[in-house]
Amino acid sequence: MRLITHNMLSCNIKGVTNGYPLGIEASRLETKESELNPEFLRKIFPKLEWKALRDAAHSLGLNDLPEHVEPSMLEDADFLKNFHHALLEVHLEEGALICPETGRRFPVTKGVPNMLLNEDEV
Amino acid sequence: MKLKQLESYLGDVVQFANPKVELEQYPTGPHIASRMLFMAESSYGDIDGKVVADLGCGCGTLGIAALLLDAAQVVGVDVDGDALLLAHENCNELEVEMELIQASLTHLPWRGPIVDTVVMNPPFGTRCKGADMEFLAAALKVAGTAVYSLHKTSTRAHIKRVAVRDFGATSAEVLCELRYNLPASYKFHKQREVDIAVDLWRFTTS
Hints:
Number of strands of chain B: 7
CATH class of chain A: Mainly Beta
Radius of gyration of chain A: 15 Å
Structural class of chain B: alpha/beta
Oligomer: heterodimer
Family (chain A): Belongs to the TRM112 family.
Domain Methyltransferase small (chain B): 48-134
InterPro entries (chain A): Trm112, Trm112-like
Low-confidence stretches of chain B: none
Helix content of chain A: 25-40%
Protein name (chain A): Multifunctional methyltransferase subunit TRM112-like protein
Pfam families (chain B): MTS
Strand order of the largest sheet of chain A: 1-2-3-4
């Protein structure tokens, strides 16, 4: 699971109102290089929750993303490189996603988060 | 990539060995899958460079087809862990990277407008009534631009009405009618195989 996917997942246990963003507990990360596509990054940027991405990256030890992004930075090669790396190249292979409200853990196994809810959670 | 080439690649996708009847795990064959995705790209430009979600991805055929047609990212969602393992193996085999999530579409844990296009082959709702409409509701929530989906031709009027009136689709159009050839996958199938008429739909959400 990459951080682009983390950015669109939330906890939807019945009654939870602040299930986003999910915390990350990482026991194994993998980095897989992929081709940087500046056009795609510029297009996806306005659709992301930047703070969620930045905080998630931070919790994985990736400290190169700034708190605020100025439009001009989307033309900057270094920024795009760090953005691309955090969003698309780092994979959470083993660990868990944590609901910020209830602390419920959603396990991540072989890169796949299990978001299935128990009967008493729906 | 040419249509024939896409169809040939998809022929390498391994299908379910033990399909689960309650989930209506019928395979999406390479013939239908390649035509569906090829049309989405060549007629509407909804795949190349886009973020695509394959809901109820099963062994991953439609998502893999999207990646072969240069989707920027593909997310496959399925309730069944065994299906996701198979999807993962298929992706390795075809050397593509798909994000996989185990989740129920009834309680989809989703935020935001990141996905452009949804492609899916939902259950027809014959074993579990209403499953087809649940998929459609979820898809129209997730997709920023368009949803491509297969539904039985016999449900056409109902699908159109509900998609637009209840699920917020801005348009609903049948692109073509296909014959869905179902080999006898389950014990309750009496005939060796059966042809079902299905519609390929394109719904828009914006």
